[in-house]
Design goal:
Layout (H helix, E strand, L loop, with lengths): L3 E3 L1 E2 L2 E2 L16 E2 L3 H11 L3 H17 L7 H19 L10 E3 L13 E4 L4 H10 L5 E4 H5 L6 H7 L7 E12 L4 E8 L8 H4 L4 E5 L4 E4 L14 H12 L3 E3 L5 E5 L14 H18 L1 H7 L5 H24 L3 E2 L8
Helix pairs in contact: 1-2, 1-11, 2-3, 3-4, 3-9, 3-11, 4-9, 9-10
Length: 346
Amino acid sequence: MMNIKPLKIRNKVMKPHKASLNPDLTARNVLTYSHWDFVELWLKRNEKDEALFYWEQAKVFNQAANGLPNQSAPLLHYYSFMNAVKALLSSRNINFKQHHGVARGENAAQIDNLSDIKVKIKNEGILPSFSKYIDGTSHEGVYNIKNLFSGLPYIHRTYCLTYDVTDDIFIPLIDAEFVLNESDNSLFFTAILSKDFRFDTVFDILPPAFELFEREKYKIKSVESLLDFNENQSSNMPQLTEFHQKIRRNLYYINGAETLWYLKRKNNQSEHTSVSISPLVITLAAMHRLSELCRYDPLKLRQLLNEKENWIIAEFIQQSPSQFIDAISSEITGHQFLIPNVRSAS
């Protein structure tokens, strides 16, 4: 018989953290309208001069991209993203080769849609070093833009509508949190699946990291647990951080007025099978390829922006900057960022 209660850190229920690798689980959320300013001050306090230089470069490119049309914005967004990644790697004292590490893949003789546009990820360079840090591997290989877009939760609805996908790739989670079983002091992750999805398909969609926990509540739990955990010992924090990292690999979020968490369904070997690459790495790779179209084939980009896939391209260009910078800011500082919400005390 389980005796379960939410795990609390400093009287606050522990939920998944935006930072996947080095979260400060004891810190309160940062309420700010500007990630740029907070991260800049954080880098100054921590004497990360090289990272600060790259971060300031990223900010300048981001500001320059504001207001540009979709035909032009990808070029500046890519350089903003690339410099933000360089700031992250430098802040973690990770050496990297000063070249992109991503290039145009061999395209079809005629480009008619996003499936024809290929991205080649190399084994060395900025993007591969970033990928190795985030995912543990460079993901060296050739991918097409349509397939990469399938792995981005923040344009998931657009992807499904654009390609008539009936089975969602990302499943919304409710009450995602870490809980402690006081019967044996084991710690694990639980969440409730959105009831917008048919319950009889749960076994078909759950990735290997999760299992059904309470059927009548649509509740799932992590297969892996942390044993003999004492919530009253501060010395257990490194152990908790490591466990969070394992769980976080299988969780995805969308940044907004509130943070929305998702799991990615088990691949069903269809044409819409999603790539197993971090959304951060996907975003950088895809924006690089669009930036190349801006520079070298702008008429082709204009054509794509006038045809069937124009909405998903536009959504990616417009939505990715806020999502990407929010995530990189968390990875650099270990903090979570939220927009200030003025409200009365409860």
